[in-house]
């Protein structure tokens, strides 16, 4: 019995010792780091992550170290370097980093934030922020159906990560709710074709030829190819083709085809992470974004008539109040079933 | 579903296949020339990427697509230069240097793009096309194949020129000897190092034009990492083509056609998991490799450094 008690005490001491580094870091969090696969100037995923981290860090008085443009390969050396440089929280801002980051986080005893792995949550060590703007994407679907002249809208994605699946399915649901007879065409550019701008243009042109006059595009660098396709092609009805972007605001580079964007603001997410690290409660829950707190919003552009925008505002209020329920479907199968279930011809 | 497959949609699919396949054709053709001369050019992805970057920059600043393609060729040759110096002249490992060149070019082009275009993301206007009288009016394939930018026809012509050079010229013979029996070529009084250097620079030029095509015609914009592995697919095409440029053409068009087929299947709402559909181009290339590549014979001296007088 005495031996068992001693063993128990030793195990307790070991577990306390194991938690000690993160607890120490929590007490004196002075620096956080964010790693992104592409440049922080893409008016999208990467820029949103970096800008939000800087804003959250500034608000909390914490230094933010940025390592961007790292590509989609092995980032373990960069993760180690960030940890050695004193980062008390590392935000691994790419689904492709969600295996390496927890590994290095455990090795270096630094808490990490990852995406697309909600199951990987671990107290003191790992939290997920598979943020989904599905509520905003639902509104974008309603908007697209209202604005489409051809009765066909398209979804182009450069991969099928969970957050994009949630937005794709919400967009299709929104379009269908607005106009039950609408056709929603869906195509993936390629496996993890995030920077394949030529592929983005090629697939978007195919969807335009299939009748789509509103394209809901989700892709990092590839979204510039999608934008190029809508700018250089007319719809099958002879009118302009419009683009609905996600995450960022491409208004500064718009040539007249940007209809809207499901804009994310990750600052509240990162601010909550910093707060949790300081409080020692990091890793006890995951993080999300929503319409209610303004971390997701639909972008208003000059191409949206005022009366349509007023309708969108009313729909937004209904989503926030719960009158319209928008569920997030993170799996690709849900997207395929939903799109396949839609009419295939006009 | 029948209403989906309109002429416009089918045309876009055929056009998509051609647009996706052409950079692969140029990369594969370039790789084939290097391999023929005994140089395993793993750096072709980097040559394409630099070609894409420089091609875009020149086309954007001058407003000339042709100067853009020339810029792309120069960009590809600039990346080929270290390969020539380090591998052919100094005898360093071709695979290691090739990978280093690709990684280095990825970083360099991303950095240059960051400072030049990261805030503005300029896009090019559509490249003018050259319709072929009679053929361009054909339904579906007419606008997709015979109303294309002139560079497309030149790329196809390059296949015939390469085949002619391989089969019927002294240069073709020298390239083959540099890859198979460099000592024999040396004994015949031809400088092996010069022949191999010429081959690698030609590869750089072709791959660079392929990259420039992606940026100018394929996307109308340059973004970092945009070649997305096309150079490596070009290497596979060259290896399965067994020294025959027409097999490179067939492989590149097959890959492009499969990419278009994946889009068609998805747009039609075919109930197959996307991952399976996305595997189609790669599976098709693998299948062709298994069926037709078994008798592939690579040059005997491929990847080896030639030293005059060494045994």
From TrEMBL, chain A:
The keyword Signal applies. It is a lipid-anchor. The keyword Membrane applies. Its main location: membrane. CDD domains: PBP1_BmpA_Med_PnrA-like (cd06304). Residues 1-26 form the signal peptide. Residues 31-327 form the ABC transporter substrate-binding protein PnrA-like domain. Keywords: Cell membrane, Lipoprotein, Membrane, Signal. It is found in: Cell membrane. SUPFAM superfamilies: Periplasmic binding protein-like I (SSF53822). PANTHER family: ABC TRANSPORTER GUANOSINE-BINDING PROTEIN NUPN, TRANSCRIPTIONAL ACTIVATOR PROTEIN MED. Belongs to the BMP lipoprotein family. This is BMP family protein.
From TrEMBL, chain B:
It comes from Ancylobacter crimeensis. It is found in: Cell membrane. Keywords: Cell membrane, Membrane, Transmembrane, Transmembrane helix. It is a multi-pass membrane protein. The chain crosses the membrane at residues 6-27, 39-60, 66-88, 95-115, 150-166, 198-215, 221-239, 246-270, 276-293. The keyword Transmembrane applies. Its main location: membrane. Pfam families: BPD_transp_2. This is ABC transporter permease.
């Amino acid at each position: 019995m005495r031996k068992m008690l001693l063993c128990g005490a030793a195990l307790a001491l070991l577990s306390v010792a194991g938690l000690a580094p993160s607890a120490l870091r929590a007490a004196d969090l002075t620096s956080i780091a964010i790693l992104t696969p592409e440049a922080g100037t893409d008016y999208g995923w990467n820029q949103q992550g970096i800008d939000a981290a800087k804003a959250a860090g500034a608000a909390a008085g914490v230094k933010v170290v940025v390592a961007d443009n790292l590509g989609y390969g092995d980032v373990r050396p960069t993760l180690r370097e960030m940890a050695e440089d004193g980062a008390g929280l590392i935000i691994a801002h790419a689904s492709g980093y969600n295996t390496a980051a927890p590994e290095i986080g455990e090795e270096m005893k630094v808490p990490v934030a990852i995406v697309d792995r909600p199951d990987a949550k671990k107290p003191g060590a790992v939290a997920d922020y598979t943020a989904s703007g599905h509520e905003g994407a639902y509104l974008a679907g309603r908007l697209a159906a209202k604005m489409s002249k051809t009765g066909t809208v398209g979804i182009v994605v450069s991969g099928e990560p969970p957050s994009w699946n949630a937005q794709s399915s919400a967009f299709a649901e929104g379009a269908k709710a607005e106009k039950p007879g609408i056709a929603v065409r869906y195509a993936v550019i390629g496996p993890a074709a995030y920077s394949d701008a030529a592929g983005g243009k090629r697939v978007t042109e195919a969807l335009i030829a299939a009748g789509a006059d509103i394209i809901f595009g989700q892709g990092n660098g590839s979204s510039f190819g999608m934008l190029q396709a809508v700018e250089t092609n007319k719809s099958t009805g002879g009118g302009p083709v419009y683009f609905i972007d996600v995450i960022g605001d491409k208004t500064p580079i718009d040539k007249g085809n940007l209809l809207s964007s499901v804009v994310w603001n990750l600052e509240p997410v990162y601010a909550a992470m910093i707060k949790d690290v300081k409080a020692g409660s990091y890793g006890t829950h995951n993080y999300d974004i929503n319409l209610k707190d303004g971390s997701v919003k639909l972008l208003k552009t000059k191409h949206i008539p005022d009366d349509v925008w007023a309708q969108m505002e009313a729909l937004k209020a209904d989503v926030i109040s719960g009158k319209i329920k928008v569920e997030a479907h993170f799996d690709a199968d849900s997207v395929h079933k939903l799109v396949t279930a839609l009419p295939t011809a006009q | 579903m029948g209403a989906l497959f309109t002429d416009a949609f089918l045309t876009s699919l055929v056009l998509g296949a051609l647009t996706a396949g052409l950079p692969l054709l140029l990369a594969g053709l370039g790789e084939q020339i290097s391999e023929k001369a005994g140089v395993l050019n793993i750096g072709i992805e980097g040559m394409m990427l630099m070609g894409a970057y420089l091609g875009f920059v020149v086309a954007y600043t001058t407003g000339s697509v042709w100067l853009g393609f020339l810029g792309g060729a120069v960009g590809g040759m600039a990346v080929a230069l270290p390969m020539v110096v380090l591998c052919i002249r100094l005898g360093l490992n071709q695979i290691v240097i090739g990978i280093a060149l690709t990684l280095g070019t990825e970083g360099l082009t991303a950095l240059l793009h960051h400072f030049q275009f990261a805030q503005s993301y300029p896009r090019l206007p559509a490249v003018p096309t050259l319709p072929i009288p009679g053929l361009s009016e054909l339904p579906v394939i007419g606008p997709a194949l015979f109303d294309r930018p002139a560079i497309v026809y030149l790329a196809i012509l390059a296949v015939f020129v390469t085949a002619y050079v391989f089969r019927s010229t002294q240069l073709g013979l020298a390239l083959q000897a540099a890859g198979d029996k460099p000592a024999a070529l040396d004994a015949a009084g031809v400088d092996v190092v010069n022949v191999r250097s010429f081959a690698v620079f030609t590869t750089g030029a072709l791959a660079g034009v392929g990259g420039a095509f992606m940026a100018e015609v394929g996307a109308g914009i340059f973004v970092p990492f945009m070649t997305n592995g096309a150079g490596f697919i070009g290497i596979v095409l060259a290896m399965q083509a067994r020294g025959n440029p027409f097999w490179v053409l067939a492989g590149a068009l097959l890959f492009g056609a499969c990419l278009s087929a994946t889009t068609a299947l998805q747009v039609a709402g075919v109930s197959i998991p996307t991952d399976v559909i996305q595997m189609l181009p790669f599976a098709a290339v693998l299948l062709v490799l298994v069926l037709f590549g078994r008798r592939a014979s690579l040059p005997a001296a491929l990847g080896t450094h030639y030293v005059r007088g060494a045994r």
